[in-house]
Structures are given as structure tokens and as C-alpha cells.
């Protein structure tokens, strides 16, 4: 009996507390940049696709919801298609952690509910943004040894010019 | 056997090996780079350092390179003491100083021996902050990609390419940190074995170019054990597939057959599986004469009707499995089944089979051929018709240097030392062929003769060895001397080998080879015989038995055939076009089953799309009579299905109930029951019900990715995985992986060993047989019956003034039907030309009108000083004479 009265009293007191409910979607909560929601593919500082289709994100994904196919343009690897099935994604962020190029990033945009499951299947066109995302500076090909358009052998960071193999000096 | 103590544990080790090999055989994870089981040790990388102690009281020990230190009884070593661990991680750190930051964009990544060894030694943080040396790459042609920055200078590539495979256009350049492995200038690698660089190189310098164009990581591909379909050697391969397309071919070790290496035809010739010319739907000839796609039901209705319209004959195929050929044979009846090879080839095939059955000298495996200490090749350019045999013969000439090394007390694995000795110690290799071959430089004598003379030489050699074998009368004195010399060299050997084949289209050549082997065997019980045949299942066909193609042509021409069923065979490659068109026109129904569109499917009334070797299971019998099972890696969508299923469905549509097979195992059971000579083929691999711990063998790796996304664009629901009802491999990552029969291994992987070098974990002794026995069942090893020498010695070759004897020339790519259709291999097809002697070239000019296989075309003429007068060579099955394969007299005329 006493407990029932106490419960009623406490509930009554809540009438005078500040409301916790926000008027979503008019009011939106703050989401830290590191929040793990909708995944994007970013571009490097030169504006080219960052993803080199190394397949590491796909390999690490615990629910196997990333699929892609490598293709190549003058030495530069990029995905021919890149597909994430968000109806399976658990937003664990492992893909971002595995990515050696900072291409794949999770963003704070959590608003991705759909009535139709097929609409949760995102292709590269849906994933690729025009900027660098959370990592403004990194450019994989500036540190890698492959020659790509605009960066020949020996032009990456901390590289000597190519060896003259017909030279006799050691 | 010696006993060595590794980290306190005693292990038995062979005394003729080195500590590295012994450690790996004992299962120790000892990092290494430059050592290779078939290339030996050179001590270039310093990665295999271990601590060796001089005795139980020695507490300090000393660092030695395991690969350069012989096994000695009682040796005590430690792979785990702090100093050797530190040494090894420093070595990797040095090797990595110049290594580019490439793994994500490197085709080797995920199956890289350098990655594995780096992780194994514990080097994970880069301390070197200075500049890296860089290299420019070369374009090495259509097969191999080059990315020189990744090199760690282990020298494996040049040791394989030059020392092992005899290539000359790949070398080491420059010195010190700048050392470079490539060609003098960009250009296609000339060796027929260039693809092995991909597996030999422990880093990503050499990678598979066609694979790179549709690249996926190793862990993302389904694997299946397979057998190469591009010649009769039967090299074991692993096929890798993803998303319905065949991605690449890898070597699958078989200690008796291909061991560590494949030829480029086998590795890069499978592109036909994905080719645009694949047949994907049944085709029916419409009223306007064109072929139109039709439904499976309509096709089967017509097939059933055709089969009910008797008489029906069947034409089998040497490139289809035993099971498919057997299904056709059962469908049409034994007397109506034709082997699908020309009359000459049929006779030679039967002869080869019979010789191999009864010869007292047993059939050489490829590995035995490598160990032969004297070799005679009669009439076959094996380096082109069966390239892997050529590579094996290249190793055989090293036997003498092995003896010299043994005398000088140099262990055989000390490769550089043994090779320096070998420059003047070579065991004899003799070749009697109509033209130059790739093996010429290593042979002691190359005799250039017409087929008849090759046979006469062979008979003379046999007579020199055993006077009881028939004598060649009126033999020219020079040839008698050559025969004597060859006989002496063969008699001086303990493991002589005689190699021949049907390329010359000459039965006497084969008989002479058999006589020599038999004569030698009387005093040299380890004499071996090796006879090659044309295609991957030619020997299987010979064992199945049937009529030659000519009989089918005659029956057709006589109007005695209503329906002809052609199984995976382009008859235009075997019968002159005019004759074939005329014969087929007389049949009411021509039904062709094939996976590729061909000239034959073009003229058929009904075409049924079958599965390629990557999409079906079956058994092939290699030239040595080894039955080997291949398993499907890809699961094509209907209506593409196994050839035997089409034949079964056809029988059903014709209201027959005797071909009521549901699974491959039922076909095999019926086959074994019907053919006592083939019963053992059942043991080539476990049947479909085989399970380990209740599970099938998994065909996908445990890290297979993308399962819930790969087809999400089509349907967001997960598709049901394909069912594999014919084999013991699952189609998914579920199932067993571990110790298993070698015939079933779908990929090589072991914890910490992601590269192909994980193979070491599946051999009891590194370089020895696979654990549980090498795959394949030999079918021709019966009890040899008393030998009778062949005595049909032909007369000497008489050149004709009005015609040339045109012999087929082998080509790596372009003469074999399937690899010919692989887009990646196209650029490697050499243009066809008629090779003649220089005098004849003078007479003919640069082009001539050649009449061959009943057609006349202008062909280019080139001079080859090796070719005897009156003889010419033209590539087999080359444009414009696709039907040319059997030797024939041909007239020439001015264009
Ligand atoms: S967040 Fe996790 S579940 Fe989602 S795609 Fe990345 S790895 Fe897969
Ligand atoms: S891990 Fe990064 S670079 Fe690699 S495939 Fe995924 S997104 Fe692309
Ligand atoms: S060779 Fe191996 S370690 Fe080097 S970039 Fe390629 S995958 Fe990485
Ligand atoms: S290219 Fe490869 S095989 Fe050749 S030396 Fe370099 S790492 Fe070794
Ligand atoms: S493997 Fe021993 S030094 Fe290279």
C-alpha cells in the first residue's frame, strides 16, 4: 500500500521536471564526429577516390555486408563497384579501422530508415562523398610505391629517384 | 636418417638435407625466403638463421644459416633462443627498409610470403625513416606483371627462370641495394614457364596479369582441386572462382607429376571458361537457317526425337571426361561410339596404350623423368606438345653433375656449387626430331630426321642394345654410328628413359621407342618409357575403346546414319572441311554438345550448352595412364549443365530408362562395371558422400567476404548457396579444412602461412609426397606380358620432287583448342608459317600456295636450317588449316 502511494507521488513529482523528450525531427541531438552511423567513401585531398579496393574492409566485416571488385586505371586501383548492404550492417566500425587509406568512414548520420529493404543497399555512387571526411590530409598514393597518373616512380614521399640499372656504381 | 634436436625435441631427419628443410619437415615455423625445395639453397636472404650448439655442454652456440648447414646426426639447434629471434627480426627489418608501402594495392597481399615472414618474426613497426630506393617496372607481356620496388633480392626468380627452366631473357642487373630483376629491356618474357615466377617470387614483384584484371584476394575465392586440360601430362591445379567467373589457376603440388611448376598454357589458357564465345543456352536451327536460342524443354524434345530416329552414332572427345564419353557410349551403344580422333591418331593411340600395357620398362612419372640419367627423345617435340615434360627433361641432364657433386662431397641442395660443377658434367640427352626444339641447347646430339628415319634410327639403337631385336638392313653408315653412340650412352646409364609420342604420326617411331626401352630393360631394370598422347583425356578414350572418326565419316557418307551426336569436339579440327560438310549433310539430325561455339556447333541442328572443366566433375587419364579427378569450382546457371546430364536427359526424352543417373558416382559405378580396365579409376578421389568429422570439405576460406552484399543489388535476401551433389566439397565456407585426402585439397593454407608455401605443412617431408599419398591412380600398371620386339621397320624416307612431307609443329599456344580461345593467351600465338630447309625456302620464295587437308591457301615460308630435305613443318591446327594435325604429303605452287 505504502509503496503504491510512493510510486504515485514520485510520478506526480515528474510533472515538474524538465522534459527529456526532444521534438525530433525538429530538434536533433548532438552526435560526436566519431559516432558510428552511415558509412561513406571519401576522396583524397586531390579529389580522387581514396578507396584502392584492397578488400580489407570486406574481409574484416563481421556480417560480410561489403562487396567490391577491383579494377585499375594506369596503375591506380579503384573499385569497379562497391556495395554495402546496410540492412545487414551492425555499425561496428571495424571496416573503418581496417581501411589503410581512410577511404571508408562512419559518420554521425544515423537517419537511414527505409520502408523497403532493397533501398538499404548502397552502391558506390551512394557512398562516395566529394570531400576527405574526418581525415583531411592523407593521400595513400603519396606514400605508396606504385606509379599513378601525376606521381611517377621516385616521386612519393621519402623516395630516391629510380635506379639506373645499367650504371655500375653500387 | 639422422636425429636432430630442435628446441629440445628430437626429430628424425634425412641426412642428405639441410637444417631448414629438416626444421620445416618437423613442422617448425622457421622463416626463410631464398631456399626453395626444388631450387635448393643459396644463402642469399639470411632469414633462416638458427642457433646451433656443438654439443650438450655448449651453452653459447653460434648462429648458422639453416639452409646452408647440412643435417648431421645429433645436431642440436634452437630456433627460439633470443639471439636468433633477434637476428631474424633484424633481417626482415633490413629487407623491409626499401619495401614500398604497397600491400593494399599489391596482388600478392594476403598470400604474401614476405608478409607472413614479417609477421612471424615480429617486426611490426618501421624504424627506418630515410629514403627508399625505387625502380622502374617493365612490361613483361600478357602474362606477368612487374613491380620491382617490392623485391627483396632473394634471387629465386632468376634461379628458376634461368637455371631451372633454361630461360635467357630474365636476369639480375646492377648491384648492392640497386639490384634489379628483369629483362634487358621491356618485352614479353620468352619462357614457356614464365607464369611460375608468380608463385616462385615470395613477394609481389611478379604477379599474374590476367588475374589482376579481375583481381580478388585469395581468401575471397572458392577453390577446387582440378587437373589441367591443355595437354596429356595431367598437371594438378587449383582453380579459383568468385561470383561465377574463373579467376585464376594455381599449381597444385603432386610429388609424382607437376611438383612445383606449371607451364604457361596450363596457367593462362583457361580464359575460355569466361569467354564471350561460351554457349549459354541451347541453340536450334531455325527455318531461315540461323541458330536461335531456345528453351531447355524444346531442346530436349528435339534431342529425344533425334535419338529416337535411328540409327544414331556418337562421336566422343579426347578433351571431355571419361564420364561424359562413357555416357555418350552408353547412349548410342558401344558399336556406334567413335573416339572422335582421326584414323591415324586412333591407331597411334591404341598402339601407345598397348605398348604401355605390356612394355617391361615401366611408364615414367614426370618426377622419374627428372631423375633419368640418360634420355632419348624420338620424334616428339615434348617442349611444345607436353611442355611440362620438357621442363622435367631439362632437370634430367643434371644427374651427372649430381654424381660429380656426390664425389666432391657437395650436398645436392647446395645449388650454386652443384650448378658450377654441372657446367661440364651433363648426363646425355639425345633428340631425334624433324626440327629444332627448345631442348636443343642441353642435348648432346640433335639429329634432324624425317619420321621414317627416326624410326630406323630407333630400331638400330634397340638392335645395338639387344642383338635379338630386329636389325635395320641397308642402314646408312653415319646413322649406324649415331645409333651405336646413343646405345652406348643409354647402356652407360642406370635409369635410362626413352621418350616418344604421336606427333610424327608414325607407328614405327613408337614401336622403335618401345623396342629400345624393352632392350634396355633386360640389363637396366630401372629403364623407363614415356609416350605422350595429344590431349588431356586421349588415354582415357583409348581405354574406353571405340571406332575411329573415319568410320563415322564412312557411315555418314553411306547414308547409314540418321542422327549423329558430337560431344565437345570440333570435328573441323580433325576432318577436312569438304568431307565433313558433305558427311554431316547426309545425317538427318546433327546434335552438338559443347561449351564453346565452334565450327561444328555452327553446322549443327541442335546445340546443347555443356559445362567446362571448371563447372563439372570428372576424371581424366593422363599420358602415363594416371586417372585423376577434377572438381567443379563454379556452378553455372541452367540450362548449362554437365555433358552427361544432357545425355541422360536426352535418353529420358527418348523414353529410355537405362541412363537413369542422378549423381556422378552412379555414372562412375556403371563405367567401372562396364570397363574392367578402368575399375581402378574409382579410387582417383573419394566419392560425393565422403565426410570428415561429419562435414564435407569446405571450398571457401574461413575469411570469405561479402556474402550478404555480393548479390544484394539483385535481391537483398540471401540466396541459397549452390548445392554440390556430385562431389565431397561444400560450396561455402562451412565444412572441414585440415588433414584430408590430397585429391580433395581446394587450397593451401595453414595458420601463419597464408601464401602457397603453406604447402610445406601438407607434406611429411618437404619436397616429398603429399601426406596421405600423391593423387591419381595409375591404370596401365598391369603385369607385363612376355615382350616381343616390333619388327615393322620402315624403309628410309624418300623425298619427293612434287610434294613436301608436311609435319605438324607444336606451339605453346595456338595449336591446342582450349587455350587457343583464352583471350589472355591470344597475343602469345605466333603467326603460322611453313618451315622448310634453306634450299627449299630459296625454291619456294617468301610465300607459297600450300595444298593441305584438301584446301589451298597462301602461307608464309621460313627457312629452318635444321629441317631435312623434303620435309616441312606447319603448326598444327593453325589458321588457315584448322584441320591439319596428321603428317601428309602436300603440294606447293607459286602464288
Ligand atoms: S560497420 Fe561493421 S558491419 Fe558495418 S560494414 Fe563496417 S564492418 Fe561491416
Ligand atoms: S579497406 Fe578502404 S581502401 Fe580497402 S577496399 Fe575497403 S574502403 Fe577501399
Ligand atoms: S609484396 Fe607482400 S609485403 Fe610487399 S607490398 Fe606486396 S603484399 Fe605487401
Ligand atoms: S623479384 Fe622476387 S624472386 Fe626475384 S629476387 Fe626479387 S623478391 Fe626474389
Ligand atoms: S633461406 Fe636460408 S639464407 Fe635464405
UniProtKB/TrEMBL annotation, chain A:
Name of the top EC class for this enzyme: translocase
Cofactor(s) listed in the protein's UniProt record: [4Fe-4S] cluster
GO MF annotation, one: 4 iron, 4 sulfur cluster binding
Binding site for [4Fe-4S] cluster 2: 61, 89, 92, 95
Segments of this protein annotated with the region Disordered: 151-170
Catalytic activity of the protein: a quinone + NADH + 5 H(+)(in) = a quinol + NAD(+) + 4 H(+)(out)
Keyword Iron-sulfur: yes
Keyword Cell inner membrane part of the UniProt annotation: no
One Pfam family linked to the record: Fer4_7
Subcellular localization(s) per the UniProt record: Cell inner membrane; Cell membrane
GO CC, one annotated term: plasma membrane
Function as written in the Swiss-Prot or TrEMBL entry: NDH-1 shuttles electrons from NADH, via FMN and iron-sulfur (Fe-S) centers, to quinones in the respiratory chain. The immediate electron acceptor for the enzyme in this species is believed to be ubiquinone. Couples the redox reaction to proton translocation (for every two electrons transferred, four hydrogen ions are translocated across the cytoplasmic membrane), and thus conserves the redox energy in a proton gradient.
Subunit structure: NDH-1 is composed of 14 different subunits. Subunits NuoA, H, J, K, L, M, N constitute the membrane sector of the complex.
Annotated protein name in UniProt: NADH-quinone oxidoreductase subunit I
Gene for this chain: nuoI
TrEMBL record, chain B:
Molecular function terms from GO: 2 iron, 2 sulfur cluster binding; 4 iron, 4 sulfur cluster binding; metal ion binding; NADH dehydrogenase (ubiquinone) activity; NADH dehydrogenase activity; quinone binding
GO cellular component terms given for this protein: membrane
UniProt domain 4Fe-4S Mo/W bis-MGD-type: residue ranges: 221-277
Any one Gene Ontology BP term: ATP synthesis coupled electron transport
InterPro entries in the record: 2Fe-2S_ferredoxin-like_sf, 2Fe-2S_ferredoxin-type, Mopterin_OxRdtase, Mopterin_OxRdtase_4Fe-4S_dom, NADH_UbQ_OxRdtase_75kDa_su_CS, NADH_UbQ_OxRdtase_ferredoxin, NADH_UbQ_OxRdtase_Gsu, NADH_UbQ_OxRdtase_Gsu_4Fe4S-bd
Entries under SUPFAM superfamilies matching the protein: 2Fe-2S ferredoxin-like, 4Fe-4S ferredoxins, Formate dehydrogenase/DMSO reductase, domains 1-3
EC number: 7.1.1.-
Limits of the 2Fe-2S ferredoxin-type domain: 1-83
Cofactor dependency: [2Fe-2S] cluster; [4Fe-4S] cluster
Catalytic reactions on record: a quinone + NADH + 5 H(+)(in) = a quinol + NAD(+) + 4 H(+)(out)
Cofactor note: Binds 1 [2Fe-2S] cluster per subunit.
Enzyme class: translocase
UniProt keywords, alphabetically: 2Fe-2S, 4Fe-4S, Iron, Iron-sulfur, Metal-binding, NAD, Oxidoreductase, Quinone, Translocase
PROSITE patterns, A to Z: 2FE2S_FER_2, 4FE4S_HC3, 4FE4S_MOW_BIS_MGD, COMPLEX1_75K_1, COMPLEX1_75K_2, COMPLEX1_75K_3
The 4Fe-4S His(Cys)3-ligated-type domain, residue ranges: 83-122
Family from the record: Belongs to the complex I 75 kDa subunit family.
Alphabetical list of NCBIfam families matching this protein: NuoG
Functional description taken from the UniProt entry: NDH-1 shuttles electrons from NADH, via FMN and iron-sulfur (Fe-S) centers, to quinones in the respiratory chain. Couples the redox reaction to proton translocation (for every two electrons transferred, four hydrogen ions are translocated across the cytoplasmic membrane), and thus conserves the redox energy in a proton gradient.
Subunit structure: Composed of 13 different subunits. Subunits NuoCD, E, F, and G constitute the peripheral sector of the complex.
Protein name: NADH-quinone oxidoreductase
Organism (species): Lichenicoccus roseus
Amino acid at each position: 500500500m505504502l509503496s503504491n502511494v510512493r510510486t504515485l507521488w514520485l510520478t506526480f513529482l515528474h510533472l515538474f521536471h524538465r522534459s527529456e523528450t526532444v521534438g525530433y525531427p525538429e530538434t536533433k541531438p548532438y552526435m560526436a564526429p566519431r559516432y558510428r552511423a552511415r558509412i561513406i567513401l571519401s576522396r583524397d585531398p586531390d579529389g580522387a577516390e581514396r578507396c584502392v579496393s584492397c578488400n580489407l574492409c570486406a574481409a574484416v566485416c563481421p556480417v560480410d555486408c561489403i562487396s567490391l571488385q577491383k579494377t585499375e586505371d594506369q596503375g591506380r586501383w579503384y573499385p569497379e563497384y562497391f556495395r554495402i548492404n546496410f540492412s545487414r550492417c551492425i555499425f561496428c566500425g571495424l571496416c573503418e579501422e581496417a581501411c589503410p587509406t581512410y577511404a571508408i568512414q562512419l559518420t554521425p548520420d544515423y537517419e537511414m530508415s527505409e520502408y523497403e529493404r532493397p533501398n538499404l543497399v548502397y552502391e558506390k555512387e551512394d557512398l562516395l562523398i566529394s570531400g576527405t571526411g574526418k581525415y583531411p590530409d592523407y593521400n595513400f598514393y603519396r606514400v605508396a610505391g606504385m606509379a599513378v597518373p601525376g606521381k611517377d616512380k621516385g616521386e612519393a614521399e621519402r623516395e630516391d629517384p629510380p635506379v639506373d640499372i645499367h650504371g655500375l656504381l653500387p | 636418417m639422422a636425429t636432430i634436436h630442435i628446441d629440445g625435441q628430437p626429430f628424425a631427419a634425412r641426412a642428405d638435407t639441410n637444417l631448414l628443410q629438416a626444421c620445416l619437415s618437423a613442422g617448425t615455423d622457421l622463416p626463410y625466403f631464398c631456399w626453395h625445395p626444388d631450387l635448393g639453397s643459396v644463402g642469399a636472404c639470411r632469414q633462416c638463421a638458427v642457433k646451433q650448439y656443438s654439443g650438450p655442454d655448449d651453452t653459447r652456440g653460434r648462429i648458422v644459416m639453416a639452409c646452408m648447414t647440412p643435417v648431421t646426426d645429433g645436431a642440436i639447434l634452437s630456433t627460439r633462443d633470443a639471439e636468433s629471434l633477434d637476428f631474424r627480426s633484424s633481417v626482415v627489418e633490413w629487407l623491409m627498409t626499401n619495401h614500398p608501402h604497397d600491400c593494399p594495392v599489391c596482388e600478392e597481399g594476403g598470400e604474401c610470403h614476405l608478409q607472413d615472414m614479417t609477421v612471424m618474426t615480429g617486426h611490426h613497426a618501421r624504424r627506418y625513416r630515410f629514403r627508399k630506393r625505387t625502380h622502374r617496372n617493365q612490361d613483361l607481356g600478357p602474362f606477368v606483371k612487374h613491380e620491382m620496388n617490392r623485391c627483396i633480392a632473394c634471387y629465386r626468380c632468376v634461379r628458376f627462370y634461368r637455371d631451372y627452366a633454361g630461360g635467357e631473357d630474365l636476369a639480375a642487373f646492377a648491384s648492392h641495394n640497386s639490384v634489379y630483376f628483369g629483362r634487358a629491356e621491356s618485352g614479353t618474357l620468352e619462357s614457356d614457364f614464365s607464369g611460375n615466377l608468380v608463385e616462385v617470387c615470395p613477394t609481389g614483384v611478379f604477379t599474374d596479369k590476367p588475374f589482376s584484371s579481375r583481381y580478388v584476394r585469395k581468401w575471397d575465392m572458392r577453390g577446387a582441386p582440378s587437373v589441367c586440360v591443355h595437354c596429356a601430362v595431367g598437371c594438378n591445379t587449383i582453380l579459383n572462382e568468385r561470383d561465377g567467373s574463373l579467376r585464376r589457376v594455381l599449381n597444385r603440388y603432386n610429388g609424382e607429376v607437376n611438383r612445383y611448376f606449371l607451364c604457361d598454357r596450363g596457367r593462362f589458357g583457361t580464359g575460355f571458361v569466361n569467354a564471350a564465345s561460351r554457349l549459354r543456352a541451347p541453340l536450334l536451327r531455325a527455318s531461315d537457317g540461323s541458330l536461335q536460342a531456345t528453351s531447355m524443354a524444346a531442346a530436349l524434345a528435339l534431342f529425344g526425337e533425334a535419338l529416337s530416329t535411328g540409327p544414331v552414332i556418337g562421336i566422343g572427345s579426347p578433351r571431355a571426361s571419361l564420364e561424359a564419353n562413357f555416357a555418350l557410349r552408353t547412349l548410342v551403344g558401344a558399336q556406334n561410339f567413335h573416339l572422335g580422333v582421326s584414323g591415324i591418331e586412333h591407331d597411334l593411340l591404341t598402339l601407345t596404350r598397348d605398348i604401355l600395357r605390356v612394355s617391361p620398362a615401366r611408364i615414367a612419372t614426370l618426377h622419374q623423368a627428372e631423375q633419368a640419367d640418360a634420355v632419348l627423345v624420338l620424334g616428339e617435340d615434348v617442349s611444345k606438345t607436353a611442355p611440362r615434360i620438357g621442363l622435367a627433361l631439362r632437370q634430367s641432364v643434371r644427374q651427372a653433375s649430381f654424381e660429380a657433386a656426390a664425389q666432391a662431397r657437395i650436398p645436392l641442395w647446395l645449388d650454386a656449387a652443384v650448378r658450377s660443377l654441372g657446367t661440364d658434367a651433363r648426363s646425355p640427352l639425345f633428340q631425334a626430331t624433324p626440327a629444332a626444339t627448345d631442348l636443343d641447347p642441353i642435348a648432346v646430339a640433335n639429329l634432324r630426321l624425317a619420321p621414317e628415319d627416326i624410326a630406323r634410327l630407333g630400331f638400330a639403337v634397340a638392335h645395338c642394345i639387344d642383338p635379338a631385336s630386329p636389325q635395320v638392313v641397308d642402314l646408312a653408315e653415319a646413322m649406324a654410328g649415331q645409333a651405336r653412340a646413343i646405345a652406348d650412352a643409354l647402356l652407360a646409364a642406370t635409369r635410362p628413359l626413352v621418350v616418344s609420342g604421336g606427333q610424327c604420326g608414325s607407328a614405327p617411331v613408337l614401336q622403335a621407342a618401345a623396342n629400345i626401352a624393352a632392350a634396355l630393360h633386360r640389363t637396366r631394370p630401372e629403364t623407363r618409357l614415356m609416350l605422350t598422347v595429344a590431349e588431356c583425356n586421349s588415354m582415357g578414350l583409348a581405354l574406353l575403346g571405340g571406332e575411329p572418326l573415319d568410320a563415322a565419316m564412312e557411315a555418314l557418307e553411306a547414308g547409314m546414319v540418321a542422327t549423329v551426336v558430337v560431344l565437345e569436339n570440333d570435328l573441323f579440327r580433325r576432318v577436312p572441311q569438304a568431307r565433313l560438310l558433305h558427311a554431316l549433310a547426309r545425317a538427318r539430325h546433327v546434335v552438338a554438345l559443347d561449351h564453346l561455339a565452334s565450327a561444328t556447333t555452327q553446322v549443327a541442328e541442335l546445340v546443347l550448352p555443356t559445362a567446362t572443366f571448371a563447372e563439372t566433375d570428372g576424371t581424366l587419364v593422363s599420358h602415363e595412364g594416371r586417372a585423376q579427378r577434377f572438381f567443379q569450382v563454379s556452378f553455372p546457371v541452367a540450362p548449362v549443365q554437365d555433358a552427361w546430364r544432357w545425355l541422360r536427359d536426352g535418353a529420358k526424352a527418348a523414353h529410355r530408362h537405362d541412363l537413369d543417373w542422378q549423381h556422378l558416382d552412379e555414372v562412375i559405378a556403371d563405367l567401372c562395371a562396364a570397363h574392367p580396365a578402368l575399375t581402378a579409376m574409382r579410387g582417383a578421389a573419394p566419392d560425393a558422400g565422403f565426410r570428415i568429422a561429419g562435414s564435407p570439405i569446405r571450398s571457401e576460406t574461413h575469411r570469405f567476404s561479402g556474402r550478404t552484399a555480393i548479390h544484394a543489388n539483385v535481391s537483398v535476401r540471401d540466396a541459397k548457396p549452390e548445392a554440390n551433389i556430385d562431389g565431397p566439397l561444400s560450396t561455402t565456407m562451412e565444412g572441414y579444412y585440415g588433414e584430408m585426402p590430397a585429391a580433395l585439397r581446394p587450397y593451401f593454407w595453414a595458420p601463419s602461412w597464408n601464401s602457397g608455401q603453406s604447402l610445406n605443412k601438407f607434406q611429411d617431408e618437404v619436397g616429398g609426397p603429399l601426406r596421405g599419398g600423391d593423387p591419381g591412380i595409375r591404370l596401365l600398371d598391369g603385369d607385363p606380358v612376355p615382350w616381343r620386339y616390333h619388327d615393322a621397320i620402315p624403309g628410309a624416307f624418300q623425298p619427293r620432287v612434287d610434294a613436301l612431307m608436311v609435319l605438324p609443329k607444336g606451339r605453346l599456344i595456338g595449336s591446342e583448342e582450349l587455350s587457343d580461345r583464352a583471350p589472355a593467351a591470344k597475343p602469345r600465338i605466333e603467326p603460322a608459317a611453313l618451315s622448310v630447309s634453306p634450299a627449299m625456302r630459296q625454291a619456294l620464295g617468301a610465300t607459297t600456295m600450300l595444298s593441305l587437308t584438301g584446301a589451298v591457301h597462301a602461307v608464309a615460308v621460313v627457312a629452318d636450317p635444321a629441317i631435312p630435305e623434303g620435309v616441312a613443318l606447319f603448326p598444327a591446327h593453325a589458321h588457315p588449316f584448322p584441320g591439319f594435325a596428321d603428317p601428309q604429303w602436300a603440294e606447293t605452287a607459286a602464288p
